[in-house]
């Protein structure tokens, strides 16, 4: 089974919205040791246990027993939490502090029934990084002033612990530039990874708010499991990383994610734990390993199991094979460290409903259940969105309600059901570039429909949300000359449901001082007779200057096989069809048009031929 690569933080960062709040932001620049506060008894770091570590469920450090996690007193506990990302990015601090105080954020998480926070970080923060985009106006985040990133982390950990929440620290990236397939890179060798794991474990050695460390986020090919190559065997590396953590704090849990491929079977990055039963992670301290899987819906990437005729009833078998068997066979606890979706499609809605049921409702199974932290708290995760809406304050109640039955506010109690409008609007169609200049791109698209009403559209440039508009058109301004940008659009309704992204279009701005760019558009007209079709593509110069040539591309399923073409050079790579002008029809005056054609045959009667063509012009 082939993994369709996703990009999460980049899978998934929709970009930093901090620039939009620049006028409100004070940038923290002076690294400093955190000041003492009520939850600590010293100034060295986050040194002591929180006052909340009383004889309540979840108190103290945790350990494993078979498939369960137990607290210090031996009570079964359930991780039912949320991911709050940002330390791993170039902000070096959780996102959203440009809008709100960190204590109000954490209070809100707890009030919604989340009991644990997963905090992703990169190894950059061990270099004394200064967090950026923290709002300190009107006393907001006042106790973060002057702290470096680790100092801010101390504050978040201490406050979470003081109100009875737990924290899992996630080594998400070697540096803020992006994720890595292996646990090391040329810039961040394994020795640095091990030293930093030991350092952060020691930093919270006396603070049981931190229950464990996720050793590395989403190992993927060429990472292997059980292959024996020390350079690529993630299972062996996890043992070395786990020992580094336990050498500094033997009471911590060690969270070990899966890989992408095992014995020719591929799954989500970090989600394939098929090899863990045969090749377990073995540490010198017993009862410390928790296996972690990541699982996603179609808003991240399309996978073969989503189009299986038996979907969603096939999903428990998929989960059993890749990670669920570890829990079902009482081998070890399993923590789904990341799962999420925009809930834009009915497939995604069915997937999340099935997954929540598979994770075992707390009301019936209690803490004898799968552990989990949802991705994400942040709304600016590009392919999943978040529990918070874009204002960083209000809650996407539809999404939150899906998780109600598996929450465990007291680490072992919970329950509840979802409800409300969960139907997303239709996907915006026909997204086209209607004009470009050296500093702007104009877009238009076909209006979406909804079971209640479409309230507006979000426009994304290169995966980052740049605007919201009530009408099906938008002009993106303030752009750089001679630069290519990619755009998608999502529709939204009053309940907070958001559609899947439209097909992407690209546009290139004019060179500086060049006036209106010689842009172009392309429209496809089909003559479809079932077993085959012809497609006539009309290319139009949408600018005010002449174009010297053009290129048109679109996506077709591989079961639509091209048999001939005319008036263009047509090539194909996978599902992408690309057509370029011939010598006689490349030059187009403003508003002039030309056409070319393609003939195709179907090897699959269900293959859809509808497509959005992207046109790029040269001047």
Short description:
This protein has helices at residues 102-111, 149-162, 190-203, 234-248, 315-328, 346-358, 362-365, 397-402; strands spanning 63-65, 68-70, 76-77, 80-83, 116-122, 166-173, 210-214, 253-257, 261-262, 265-266, 289-296, 334-340, 371-374, 429-436, 441-446, 454-461, 464-469, 473-476, 484-493, 505-508, 520-528, 532-541, 549-555, 560-566, 569-573, 576-580, 593-602, 614-618. Helix 3 runs parallel beside helix 4 (234-248). It has an 8-stranded parallel barrel with strand order 4-5-6-7-8-11-12-13. Strands 17-16-19-20 form a 4-stranded antiparallel β-sheet, with no helix packed on it. A 4-stranded antiparallel β-sheet has the order 21-22-27-24, with no helix packed on it.
Protein described:
The strands form seven sheets. An eight-stranded parallel beta barrel has the order 4-5-6-7-8-11-12-13. The chain is globular and about 80 Å long. It has eight helices and 28 strands. Helix content is 15%, strand content 26%. By secondary structure, it is α/β, with parallel strands linked by helices.
């Amino acid at each position: 089974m082939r993994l369709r690569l996703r990009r999460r933080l980049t899978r998934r960062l929709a970009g930093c919205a901090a620039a939009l709040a620049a006028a409100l932001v004070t940038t923290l620049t002076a690294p400093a040791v955190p000041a003492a506060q009520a939850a600590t008894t010293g100034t060295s770091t986050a040194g002591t246990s929180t006052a909340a570590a009383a004889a309540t469920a979840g108190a103290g450090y945790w350990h494993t027993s078979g498939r369960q996690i137990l607290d210090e007193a031996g009570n079964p506990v359930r991780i039912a939490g949320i991911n709050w990302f940002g330390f791993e990015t170039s902000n070096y601090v959780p996102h959203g502090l440009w809008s709100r105080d960190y204590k109000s954020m954490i209070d809100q998480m707890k009030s919604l029934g989340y009991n644990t926070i997963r905090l992703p970080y990169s190894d950059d923060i061990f270099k004394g990084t200064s967090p950026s985009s923290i709002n300190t106006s009107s006393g907001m985040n006042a106790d973060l002033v002057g702290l470096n990133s680790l100092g801010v982390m101390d504050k978040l950990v201490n406050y979470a612990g003081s109100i009875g929440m737990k924290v899992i620290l996630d080594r998400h990236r070697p540096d803020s530039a992006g994720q890595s397939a292996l646990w090391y890179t040329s810039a961040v060798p394994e020795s640095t990874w091990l030293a930093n794991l030991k350092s952060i474990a020691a930093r919270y050695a006396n603070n049981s708010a931190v229950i464990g460390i996720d050793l590395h986020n989403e190992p993927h090919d060429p990472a292997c499991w059980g292959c024996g190559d020390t350079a690529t065997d993630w299972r062996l590396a996890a043992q070395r990383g786990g020992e580094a953590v336990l050498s500094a704090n033997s009471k911590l849990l060690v969270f070990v994610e899966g890989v992408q491929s095992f014995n020719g079977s591929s799954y989500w990055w970090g989600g394939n734990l098929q090899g863990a039963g045969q090749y377990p992670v073995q540490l010198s301290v017993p009862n410390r390993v928790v296996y972690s899987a990541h699982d996603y819906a179609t808003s991240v990437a399309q996978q073969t199991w989503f189009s299986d005729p038996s979907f969603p009833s096939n999903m428990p078998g998929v989960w059993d094979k890749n990670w669920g068997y570890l829990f079902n066979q009482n081998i070890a606890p399993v923590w789904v460290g990341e799962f999420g979706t925009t809930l834009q499609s009915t497939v995604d809605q069915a997937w999340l409903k099935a997954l929540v049921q598979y994770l075992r409702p707390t009301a019936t199974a209690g803490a004898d259940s799968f552990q989990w932290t949802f991705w994400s708290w942040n709304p600016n995760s590009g392919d999943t969105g978040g529990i918070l809406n874009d204002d960083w304050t209000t809650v996407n109640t539809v999404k939150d309600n899906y998780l109600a039955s598996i929450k465990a506010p007291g680490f072992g109690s919970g329950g509840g059901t979802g409800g409300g409008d969960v139907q997303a609007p239709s996907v915006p169609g026909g997204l086209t570039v209607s004009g470009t200049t050296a500093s702007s791109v104009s877009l238009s698209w076909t209006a979406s429909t909804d079971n209640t009403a479409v309230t507006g559209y979000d426009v994304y440039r290169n995966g980052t949300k740049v605007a919201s508009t009530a009408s099906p058109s938008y002009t993106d301004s303030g752009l750089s000359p001679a630069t290519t940008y990619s755009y998608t659009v999502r529709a939204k309704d009053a309940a907070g449901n958001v559609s899947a992204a439209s097909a992407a279009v690209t546009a290139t701005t004019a060179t500086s001082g060049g006036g209106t760019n010689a842009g172009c558009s392309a429209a496809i007209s089909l003559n479809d007779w079932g077993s085959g079709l012809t497609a006539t593509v009309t290319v139009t110069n949408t600018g005010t200057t002449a174009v010297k040539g053009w290129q048109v591309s679109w996506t077709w399923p591989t079961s639509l096989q091209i048999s001939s073409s005319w008036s263009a050079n047509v090539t194909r790579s996978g599902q992408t069809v690309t057509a370029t002008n011939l010598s006689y029809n490349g030059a187009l005056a403003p508003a002039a048009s030309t056409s070319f054609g393609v003939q195709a045959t179907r090897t699959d009667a269900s293959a859809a031929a509808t497509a959005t063509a992207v046109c790029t012009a040269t001047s």
